[in-house]
Structures are given as structure tokens and as C-alpha cells.
Amino acid sequence: MQESFDIDPAQIDRFTCGTLRAANVGETVEIKGWVHRRRDLGGLIFIDLRDRYGLTQVVFNPEIHPEPHAIASDVRNEYVLAVTGVVRKRPDGTENPRLPTGEIEIEAETIHVLNTSLTPPFYVNEDGDVDESLRLKYRYLDMRRDRMQKQMILRHRIVKYMRDYLDTRGFIEVETPLLIKSTPEGARDFLVPSSSSPGEFYALPQSPQQMKQLLMIGGYDRYFQIARCFRDEAQRADRQPEFTQLDIEMSFVSQEDVTSLIETLFLEMTEAFTDKKLLFRPFARMTYAEAMDRYGSDRPDLRFGMELQNVGPALAQTGFKAFASVLESGGQVKAIVVPGCGNYTRREIDDLTERAKTLGARGLATIALSDDGLRSPIAKFLTEDEIAALTSGIGAAQGDLVLIVADAPAVVAKVLGGLRDYFGVLLKLADPDVFAYCWIYEFPLLEWDEEGNRWDATHNPFSGFYEEDRPLLDSDPGAVRALQYDLTLNGNEVGGGSIRMHRSEDQQRIFSMMGHSEAAQEERFGAIIHALEYGAPPHGGIAMGIDRFVMLVTGTENIREVIAFPKNQRGADLLFEAPSPVDEQQLIDVGLALRPSNPEKA
After folding, report:
1. Which of 39, 56, 166, 444 could be bridged to 17 by S-S, CB 3.0 to 4.6 A?
2. CA dist 426 to 276, 354, 399, 415, 420, Å?
3. Tens digit of each residue's pLDDT (9 = 90 or more) over 345-404
């Protein structure tokens, strides 16, 4: 890792708790910070004073300076102090090589208690396990801890690196509004009522998508923004209702132009901010169809194998009805080999079957190559050749477990892909010291929405498509490939973008296929539709998730660890107790009345 957390002392206009060295011995200095630890040895008192730059040991000697020693006797952890004294070398044998300031200490001459502190609800001076709800409620204390400070500093430096990288390549940073019109973009909007227009609403942007396209039409051919985005959707470990992304748009570019720009940036940042080994240089690339076929996922973790294997051809003549009926109806039979799990008990197999059903399977077939021989509830329905095809034919060895799913291709991919991810974590198959980037491209442009009886965009409705697929818009819309590309890292999507539609007629056609009438298009997307009629250049871009990337770089378990003031898993802010009720007058001002959540009990 080339970057460090050291700060150049010359850039700070005062002495900090992390900048004094042996070269400062003999100087009289003042430092300010929090009491990290206090040790009373029955005469001498030692206080480790802390700020975000480090720790400095301060010594209070009652025989030399009794007044500051008396004050230090009443000091406790997390008090805020200003201490003046002479820098001296620590006595031989008492140096602390773990600290940059470990060669010196300050002999205190004066001390001022700038503020006292209640006893914190958890230890700030160590990184022990603390209930997350408590940490979020007292986030201002949690952020004093060394690990949190390093992660926030690292986040700052990653964002700065992004800005500098793009600035040297001719990009300009443009801020876009946070109060916009509500438009359907996949997730629910956060709505903001307007007191000047009662009954009408702004929406917080799910992304600056339309605005960055309008910037291209306005002639700003290289735009970027560290953009705040908002989506009212279910939470998970790598998702927040508000998040930050590196948003980029460029004019007169191809897909390769955009991906090359981002690949170089992420290669450089990986080398600058991590010690990870890169599995692929240049990054791996595969089509969406290949990713789903081999891994059952459009964000596969390529640090381990366990690929999905199609055993349908070997079972073409099978007499096992559960497989035969699926193959006859155009479905698939695929398998994965789980290493070292051949001795799973019946209960463990039942648990796996329930997990598969949760993922959408009707059932799960298993073949265990255990120490006691082959065990499988389906063996009696298969020939020896079919069993061989389902074991040695797909690379299963003694001690392995074969999992088989027969169903529609989408179900097979979801189930086996989910089981692959599960075992990847359970068996620790992925090397934690490796970064495996992969570009996924050629996504389907549209997917059929059975419930809505219409086509829907697989990513966003502004993505362009391969020109050679244009005839398929009439004959087979689901086969049209989008000019969409996602960057994945170790099983996570870290960003995605597309080359956009820059002709108004194409954009309106896709909106129509998605079920938007001309009137609805005008109401919801009128600005972009009309702008495309005024000489819109070909353009494309990408958005990279900053929170998620920092999470992966720091090796933390969830995205909340790299955000200063995150929401919890239910989208609640425990520090400010939001969301919360508002005064009745505030509702009157914006012309709103609340409906009871359960009208029958109102």
C-alpha cells in the first residue's frame, strides 16, 4: 500500500498528538486532545493524549509541577485537555516502538481542562465489539475510535484521488439539484412536499441520470460529480437509503472509452490504497449470458471455481421423470460440486434443500461421495452412466457433494448461484487477499413484466442498444442487448453504466414498450425527450458506488462502517431519531393530512 495515514506536520498550524518526534526534544509545546488513557503510579501520572493524528504521552510530576499534577489527578478518560510542557526523550527502556511518538514524552508544566466528559457508554480507547445500535446512537463517540477514523480518512483520500484523476483528464465537476421531479427509476422515491405548491411534491434523486445527460446536450462533454443519491428500498448490509456515487458522463465515446477510463482508475486506486493482489490485469470480461451460465449471477465472485455445469445433455434419455419433464419443456438440469462436504448428514442435506427452496427451487437433488460410498435419494432412478456423468463427469471426487437443480433456466441460475455464494463464504473458498475485478456486458435491454403485462428496463430506461439488434425490437424484444456494462469486484457490483440513447425517437419507442403513453411520457420524461431533439451528441457514462468500494477496500462487513452517519438496517437514524413525527402545523403548511396506517382501526 503506497498511501499512509501520516500527516505532514508542516501542513498543520499547531502541534498535534501525532507529530512530535525526537527532533523536537527540548522544545516547549502545547498540544490539545482527548484523554485516551490515564495511569496513576502513586506519584507520577501518565496521560496519553489523543487526537486524530495520534497519541502523545504526557507526564505529570508532583515534585516539579505540583499544580498541574493535582488537576491531572481528577482527569478521566475523554476529558478534553490543553497541555503545555517540554518535549523530552523517554528514559531508556520505556520507549514505545508501536507509536510514531514513542521516543518522546511531554513533561507537563500547565494543564487546562477544556471540557469534562460523562463516562462513555462503551470504551472509546479500544476497538472491542460493541452493539451496533449503541454505536449508531452515540456515533460521535464511535467516530473517535481509531478504526473508524482510519476508515473515514481513507474514504476522504479515495474520493480525492477520484477527483484528481478526473481533473487531469479534462473532466469538470458539476453539482446537480437534490429537489427534482418524481420519475419511475426502479425504486420508490423519497418525496418532499412543497409549502409554495400545496399538494405537490419534489423527489430526492435516485441518481442524476437525466441531469447528466442534459449536461451532455448542453455541451459539457466530460462531467463528473460525487453525487448523493436516495432510494426508498429494503435495506441490507451493502445498501443504504442515501448513498454516494462517483457519477460520470462523456460525449462522443464508445463503451470501451468509458470502461478503459474506469479500469485505469480502479487499478491505480487498488495499488494506492490496498495490499491486495489483482487476479486479473486487465480486468476479466464476460457477457451477461456467460456469467449467468457459468456462475448463476451477473456479479460472480471469480476468486473460486465451483462453476455451474450443464448435465442436461448427459441426461437426454433419462428415465427419471423429474429431470426428463424439465428437459422436455425447455428447462435445464445443472449441478455444482461442493468440495469436502460428502459426509453431510441427512439433517444438513435437509437444511440445504430448504435453502434451495427459499431461493426458488421446487427441490434439490444431491449425490454425496461419502466415506461410506455413494449416497443419493435419486440414485435408484438413474443408470450407472448417468450417475457417472453427474459425479466424475463434472469433476466430483471422494468426499465431495453434488447439488443438482432442474427447472427453468432463470430458476436454476438463481438457486445454484445462491448456493455457490453460500458455500463460498461457508467454506472460505475465496482468497481474502485477492481482488478479482470483472466487467459484465451485453445485458438484456428489456425483461417481460408478467404482472404489469409490459416490458421493463433491466437497468434503466435510458440505456442504448446494439444497432444490429434493432430488428429484434419488433420480433423478440427480450433478445435485444443493451449497451450496458457493470464492474464487479469479489461478488459485488461496484458500478455500472451504459451508452445512452441519444435520439428522441428511440427513447420514446422504448418508453412506449414499457407501457408509458404519450401523455405519460410528456409528464414524466418531457425534459429529456425534448432535449434529445436539439442536437444531442452520442454519450455514455457510469456510476461507481463509493460507499461499497470503500467497504471492500477496508475489509469491513457492512457499508455502515464507512459512512459517517449511516442509517440502521431498518433505515432509521438512531442518533437523531429519524424518521419522526412532525408538528401538525408543518403538515398544514404543506397541505397534507395523514391517513391512519390501519383504516379499519381508525
Report:
1. 56
2. 22, 17, 17, 16, 10
3. 999 999 999 999 999 999 999 999 998 899 999 999 999 999 999 999 999 999 999 999
| N residues, the chain | 602
Q: Cα separations (Å) of 194 from 35, 323, 586, 589?
A: 47, 59, 11, 9
In terms of domains, do 485 and 456 share one? Answer: yes
Q: Which cell goes with 323? A: 429431470
The DSSP bridge partners found for residue 285 are: 439
pLDDT above 90 coverage of the chain, percent: 87
Count structural domains, the chain: 3
User: Which structural domain range is residue 320 located in?
Assistant: 304-429
Fill in the amino acid letter for 349: I
Question: pTM of the predicted model, to two decimals?
Answer: 0.91
Phi, psi of 139 (to 5 degrees): -60, -35
Which sign, positive or negative, has the C-alpha torsion 475, 476, 477, 479? negative
Question: Distance between terminal CA atoms of the chain?
Answer: 61
> ω before 9 within 30° of 0 (cis)?
no
Contact (Cβ atoms closer than 8 angstroms) between residue 524 and residue 184: yes
- Residue 492 belongs to some domain of the structure: yes
Amino acid at 58: V
CB atoms within 10 A of CB 310: 15
Contacts of 565 (CB under 8 A, 6+ apart): 139, 573, 575
Domain harbouring 102, CATH code: 2.40.50.140
Say which DSSP state 276 is in: P
Torsion on CA atoms 280, 282, 287, 288, rounded to nearest 10: 60
Count other Cβ atoms within 10 Å, centred on residue 138. Answer: 18
- What nine digits make up the cell of 149? 477514523
- Residue 120 contacts by C-beta under 8 Å, 6 or more apart in sequence? 77, 78, 138, 141
